[in-house]
Amino acid sequence: MTPSNAITYCVGDATVPIGGGPALIAHVCNDVGAWGAGFVCALSKRWKQPESEYRRWFSKAPADMPKFALGEVQFVQVTNDIWVANMIGQHGISRGLKKRGSPPVRYEAIDRALAKVGDHALKTKASVHMPRIGCGLAGGRWEFVEPLLITHLCQRGIPVTVYDLKPS
């Protein structure tokens, strides 16, 4: 039995949340409007709305949306009981990372975004599902991201599942 404030880790596809009930799929996006590499490809294969809404948000935030900026979140409902949380937690993209020397991940932005994800999950009674956010193309380290999940989600009683892809 997993303690209520622990993260469940599994091998699988985060776009297919395990368990029943409402689910929120969280992932990290960049702040330059680029979509097309990493986990977003799996999202776009399953649903068109997360990408189209992200692009619309980037080009001109609708009046009912927060400004497109680091730390903000866009919630896109893709089925009756599944939402995708487009969290802006990456500054720029990883191209040229070796020259710059620092990865595009922004932990402070992920921290702020996860607080909003927690609020939305509580309001909708949703569990939260994700890949190891911020640790792929954004270049982050899981030992910095995991405590943010525990603080903003697990300690608030929100079930969290983190998915690792099956090794090929």
From TrEMBL:
Transmembrane segments: none annotated. It comes from Prosthecobacter fluviatilis. PANTHER family: ADP-RIBOSE GLYCOHYDROLASE OARD1 (PTHR12521:SF0), PROTEIN C6ORF130 (PTHR12521). Residues 6-149 form the Macro domain. SMART domains: A1pp. This is Macro domain-containing protein. It comes from the Bacteria. It catalyses: an N-(ADP-alpha-D-ribosyl)-thymidine in DNA + H2O = a thymidine in DNA + ADP-D-ribose.
